Amino acid sequence: MKEQLYLTFSLGQHRYSIDSRYLEEMLPLPEITMLPTASKDIIGILNLRGTVIPVLDLNLSLGRTPLPYRTTDSIIVLHQAQLTVGLIVSNIGALETRQTIDVDNSDARLQAQREGVQRQQLIAGKILSVEVTSAEKDDSLCWVLNEPKQWLRYVEIQQLVSIAGILEDDPTALPEELTRLESTTFCPEATPEERAIFQQRSYSLRQPVESSQPTTVSTLAVIAINGHYFGVDLSIIKEFTDIQTVVPIPCCPSYIVGNMNLRGDILTLVDLQKALSDSPSVISPSTDLLVDKLKVMVIEIDQYVIGILVDTVLEAMFPLDQREAIASSGFSSPIDQRYLRGTFPYDDTTVGILDLPKVLNEGNLVINEVVR
């Protein structure tokens, strides 16, 4: 079975995944311009920096009752060939390297998934292999979605292209020039405060990116370590995974928790807080290791592959405008300030940007002790 990097997400109690090759970006849910002329599950369009993309409510595509939209929902933007499409999802999970298992068309679980589905081509007929257990339930499986170009019919794409023409001369025209197309208000049950959040997000996303300006956006994963929030450059993260059986390593520094078998490879686990500060850590180098509460962030720097223990993954892909980053001098953190490249606001807290390549280059995670 071939391994591939997948993004997992949820729709209410149901879980799905998509091949990360199609993943372009993830956004907090903005206000969507409703389109009564489109298919039922294409609830509207979004002006994403001058490019109009259709937005699907997957619950409608899958024949389910739509859930109320919330400010905590997200949009996953997918791209393949000439098609870009957005999906509204409840919660975004982790990016992980997984194997998949084909599910036969006669399988009752697959038939149940496709029953009443408007777009049969959505479900690829595969599930993530790690989800298969002897006590599996239909709603506990993580189903794999098909490649995006198979989702929309040609006539639907042409309808959306014609609407996109409205924006060719004036990227800020949406939604004012398209008001006449709206038959309903997006998320009518939203409070005035929630509607203001949706509208502000939509306005920000409509602003075109000046091509003359250098790229200032970097993509981070937002993690928690011992209750403190940190951002890590996504380019050095191979995956997030669960902790398996940990084997302690004798005669190693205290921050080396032990080794773990990761699909046949030996992965060394590191307690980063203990490695970079003198503060006590809640992590114990025992095999009891709070397996149900901690995850492993697998990073690769200069061919070194290391597992960093984290409390949780808050954002698998967080786009950060580097101009929003500020100095870390006032940031309260158990990790030494010289290993932070700045901070940025996140919800009601502050996130420190970890400089893990610097940590490795200074030898902080290198084992120099000799086993006798």
Detailed description of the structure:
- The protein is mainly beta and 372 residues long.
- It has two domains: 3-206, OB fold (Dihydrolipoamide Acetyltransferase, E2P), CATH 2.40.50.180; 217-361, OB fold (Dihydrolipoamide Acetyltransferase, E2P), CATH 2.40.50.
- It has helices at residues 58-61, 108-114, 154-164, 192-206, 272-276, 356-361, and strands at residues 3-11, 14-19, 23-28, 33-34, 42-48, 51-57, 74-80, 83-89, 91-102, 123-128, 142-145, 217-225, 228-233, 237-242, 246-247, 256-262, 265-270, 295-301, 304-310, 312-321, 340-346, 349-354.
- The strands form four sheets. Strands 3-7-8-6-5-4 form a six-stranded mixed sheet. A six-stranded mixed sheet has the order 14-18-19-17-16-15. The protein has a five-stranded mixed β-barrel with strand order 1-2-11-10-9.
- The longest helix has 15 residues, at 192-206.
- The model is unreliable at 171-183 and 280-291 (pLDDT under 50).
Descriptive terms for the model:
372 residues; mainly beta; OB fold (Dihydrolipoamide Acetyltransferase, E2P); 2 domains; six-stranded mixed sheet; 22 strands; globular
In short:
By secondary structure, the chain is mainly β. Helix content is 13%, strand content 39%.
Number of strands: 22
Oligomer: single chain
- Work out the helix count: 6
Question: Rough shape?
Answer: globular
Per the CATH scheme, the topology name of the largest domain is OB fold (Dihydrolipoamide Acetyltransferase, E2P)
Within the largest sheet, what's the order of strands? 3-7-8-6-5-4
Low-confidence stretches: 171-183, 280-291
What's the alpha carbon Rg, rounded to whole Å? Answer: 23 Å
Structural class: mainly beta
- CATH hierarchy: architecture of the largest domain: Beta Barrel
Number of domains: 2
